[in-house]
Amino acid sequence: MYLHVPMAWLASADYVLLALCGLLCMVWRHPLAGIMALEAGPLGATATALCLITGSLWGKPGWGTWWVWDARLTSMLVLFFLYIGHILIIRAFDDPVRGQRAAALLALAGVVDLPIIKFSVQWWNTLHQPDSITLTGAPTMSMSMFYPLLICATGFTLTGIALLLIRTRATLLERRAQSLALREPLV
Amino acid sequence: MIHPALWPPHWGFVLASYGLVITVLAIMITTSLLRLRRASQRLTLMQRLQDTAANPATGQEKD
After folding, report:
1. Ramachandran assignment for A133, one of left (phi > 0), alpha (psi -120 to 50 degrees), beta (any other)
2. Which domain of life does this protein belong to (chain B) (predicted)?
3. What is the pLDDT along chain A (187 residues), one digit of tens a residue?
4. ipTM given for this complex
5. At what angle do helices A31-63 and A4-27 cross, to 10 degrees?
6. Cα–Cα distance between B45 and B23 in angstroms, integer?
7. How many CB atoms lie within 10 A of CB A4?
8. Minimal CA–CA distance to A146: which of A129, A162, A131?
């Protein structure tokens, strides 16, 4: 639980960031938003994959099966495919700006999946348990489990932010070096 | 050593989950830091080459 739940939160939060970057890219054409979207995609895909795998590892002893085509699990798998599509589209064009705009469209369209993931356990009769933590109500789990979960979630979120900033900075430096190399012959 | 019969239930699944997440995180952090280091070294090199190309005399005087 201390790995699966924070990974699920991180995967959803990363997609919100991806959609915001897409919006910034489409409306204001901010170049940094495109670079952030480029780097947020693989991080989100990794978090989603880890969420699905750790959930499967938890499901086998808990439910007796690795996988069911349950609404929560399926919508999370759709999120993973959205991330994969975004990663492929943003790198598919020779012109990076065109790639960023095409990927932004996918990111914005895919936002529909987030409320489906969140409310799937309420809308449909699923094998997956309902949410133990909500923004409005008290958690339905023991406090001795709730606080470690919060610490784990904070740690993973901060690691995710740090990784995103490191990778974005690396891309910026790579592009600056590339533009210097292309500016004029050095010798 | 604790006898395997006394290990927590489903310890294999727990070990697999933690092992997987820690390995993936370690790989991601290491590769990201290495990429940042390589990019910053390349940029420094390009800037130095540009400076040398712009002021060749300065480079010769230093020699």
Report:
1. beta
2. Bacteria
3. 888 999 999 999 999 999 999 999 889 888 899 899 999 999 999 999 999 999 999 888 888 889 989 899 999 999 999 999 999 999 998 888 898 899 999 999 999 999 999 888 888 888 887 877 777 777 777 888 888 899 999 999 999 999 999 999 999 999 999 888 887 654 4
4. 0.83
5. 160
6. 33
7. 20
8. A131
Helix A113-123 vs helix A71-90: angle between axes, to the nearest 10 degrees?
A: 170
Any CB–CB contact under 8 A between B29 and chain A? yes
**Chain A residues whose beta carbon lies within 8 Å of the beta carbon of residue B43:** 173-174, 176-177, 180
| Whether A173 and B39 lie within 8 Å, measured CB to CB | yes
CA A137 to CA A34: how far, in whole Å? 37
Cβ-proximal residues to A177 (8 Å cutoff; 6+ apart), any chain: B39, B42, B43, B45, B46
Write out the two tokens for A68. Answer: 């069911």
Helices A4-27 & A143-183 angle (0-180, nearest 10):
40
What are the residue ranges spanned by the domains of chain A?
A: 4-124+142-183
Q: Are A49 and A80 in contact (CB under 8 A)?
A: yes
